[in-house]
Specification:
The protein is mainly alpha-helical. It has a single domain, classed as Stage III sporulation protein AH-like (Helix Hairpins, Orthogonal Bundle). About 60% of the residues lie in helices and about 10% in strands. It is built from 5 helices and 5 strands, in the order E-E-H-H-H-H-E-E-H-E. Strand 4, helix 5 and strand 5 form a beta-alpha-beta unit. Helix 2 runs antiparallel to helix 3, helix 3 packs antiparallel against helix 4 and helix 4 runs antiparallel to helix 5.
């Protein structure tokens, strides 16, 4: 397909195939995947910033309303985390399926494996924290750190509870205690 302006016949013709060959199919696919992942993360953050749509009828008991709000927070947090991961894996899988270079496919497969390992580590952390007596827990691993959100009993976490949670993160995901952020909801 040739593109040129008809007003200026002296202008050079541009061949799209040559442009694609010059840039490289692999580079275009990688750039497209990065843009899509960035867009998905931004939209997820912008549209679902921890806010839940509450379709429940008004409740007279304030304590029950607060409990439902906290339950919704943890449910929405888990759904948002899973949705973002699923979308990232889907984009990476399209890179693998596109038949790009071996290097791009290997990189995408390594990213998929890393995400799968993080999902497993997060689930282990959440279950072990719940086994220590916390009603709700959400763990999000990012890089070498982890954010752990627990449902508190209204009082500040005790030092021994903080130590237990940090130990769980270290033994389950090999994350150093100084890289563990604990948030009480």
């Amino acid at each position: 397909m040739k593109i040129f302006k008809s007003e200026n016949p002296d202008r050079k013709k541009v061949d799209i195939k040559q442009v694609i060959e010059k840039i490289g199919k692999r580079n275009l696919v990688i750039a497209g995947a990065v843009v899509v992942i960035g867009l998905v993360v931004y939209l997820n953050w912008f549209l679902f910033d921890g806010a839940a749509v509450d379709n429940t009828p008004p409740v007279a008991d304030a304590g029950a309303e607060n409990k439902e709000e906290e339950d919704n927070y943890f449910t929405v947090s888990l759904l948002n985390r899973n949705r973002a991961r699923d979308e990232a894996i889907e984009v990476l899988q399209t890179v693998v399926d596109a038949g790009t270079s071996d290097e791009a496919s290997a990189s995408a497969m390594a990213d998929i494996a890393r995400i799968a390992a993080e999902i497993e580590k997060e689930a282990n952390i959440e279950e072990l924290v719940k086994s220590k007596g916390f009603a709700k827990c959400v763990a999000v691993i990012s890089g070498q750190g982890v954010n752990i959100i627990v449902k508190g009993e209204g009082e500040a976490l005790l030092p021994n509870e903080i130590a237990q949670i940090k130990e769980i993160a270290y033994t389950s995901a090999n994350i150093l205690p100084e890289n563990v952020v604990i948030i009480e909801k």
